[in-house]
Structures are given as C-alpha cells and as structure tokens.
Amino acid sequence: MWEQYIIETSRGRFEYFVRGEGEPLAITHFYMGFDERGNLFADPFTEHYKVYLINVRGAGNSAHIEDDEQLSFQEIVKDLEAIREALKLEKWAFAGHSTGGMLALQYAVDSTASLTKIVAGSTAASKEYGNHPNSIYCAENKHFNRIVEIMDLLNNPDTVREERQKLSYEWALMSYHSEEKLKLATTRPNSGRTIGKNLDYFRKVQVKSFDIRERLKSIHIPTYIFAGRYDAQCPVEFGIEIADLTPNAQLTIFEQSNHNSFIEEEEAFKEFLQLTL
User: pTM score, two decimals?
Assistant: First the structure.
C-alpha cells in the first residue's frame, strides 16, 4: 500500500501518496483520483524512484475546484509547482500517461528548471490526435458514438457504482490489445477513479485549444517518450511526432501494446524504465 499525505501549499491543500526510494518523481493524471492502492502506471516507477502520486484539484481530498479555469494544464502545472515547493524539493522528475503525458509536456515547456527529466507516453502534443481515424475520439472511428455515451454517463452523478464499473471496463477494453491483459489488470491493486467534472472540462474545453508542438523544441532536459503500436486513444504517430520535435528525446515503441504498455508488455516496460535512470 502507498502512504497517504496531505500538504498545505500556497495554492491550497493537496493529497498525495508516496512509495519507493530514490530520486523524487511526481505522477498525476488530469481526471483520475488515486488512493492508497496506488496505480498500475505508477507502480513500476517505485522500483527506482521515490514516487509522489498526486491527486489534482477536484480529485480525492485535494482542493476543491472554485473556478473551471483552475483545471487548465497551465494551472495544474502551477499547482504541481506549489506542491514541489512545499515539499522543499529543488527539482523532481515527472512522469505521465495519456493526459498525464500531456501534463508532462506542458510542465516541461512551462517550468523546465524545476524538472530533472520527463517520461511521457501514450499521449500527444496537440488536439490533432482526436482527428485521427484510428483514435476512438475521432468522429470517423467506429467507437466514437459509444465512447461519448460512456463519458457522459461517467459524468452523470446519477450513474450508480456498478454501472460505472461496467462502463469503465468497456472503455478500457477499447484501449487494450488483448482482453486477457485487461483481465490481468483488474486483479491488481489499483486506483484511478474517473473524476467526471475534470474529464468533462478536458474534453469540452482544455483539449480544444491544446497545441504545444512548436514549444517542444525548447525542452532540453532528458525526455523519454513511449507509445503503443496499436494505441486506440493517441495513435502511435503522435508519440513519434513528440520525439521528432523534442531535442534529446528518446522514443520507445511497444510493438504489442495498445494504450497501456505498462501492463500489456510489463517486462519490456520495466526495461524501458531502466533507460530513464
């Protein structure tokens, strides 16, 4: 189990969970709430790093959302900076998967001096991933209408817990290359409950203006990008694009993965993490 902490910062109270030893590394996600069970993406990092798994504003016991604009990538980076300062850490690494990967990129272009490195995967540097026909978020994709229904239901407070679990599994199944691997994931201790308000803001506001591709050229810290060959959320082309635009970036493509290579190719992902040390 992970150890829970609450910290008071200049931007409010935030909840985080700690596990592992070594160089400090922060992990979060735009619309997930974590608890003492940790997270399947964060777990392998604990073999090499002291990991701070952070609940963003609106998630878990972190500060409430007073204004929707507090959910923008730029404001979340400011919250992360406030947490780092309150922890009295001069610098830390940051790792993110999916929208967490977008946050990693945003953090690197906004506050490079606070970071030792970033690890970002299954992600994109612009809204354009949503226009790619291989993405379930593209209107041309066969899963598009259903994924919109799922997100709307998860944002509906009247959707009961059992139904939420079924919806989350259906969404996840679209993002695994093998259902066997998804079933394996469900047997592991894990947290990452979808926070409806945060998800709603992401898809209706934040992502519509997201494009930091040109700014990636200003990143000069070590950058480790990973992508799944069959990613149905952020197609592999967008991981390749990030690596091409970012100086000093190293790209790893997981050839038997969809969106969750840390489970779909678990041993290969551990080998990938060795490269980040």
Answer: 0.95
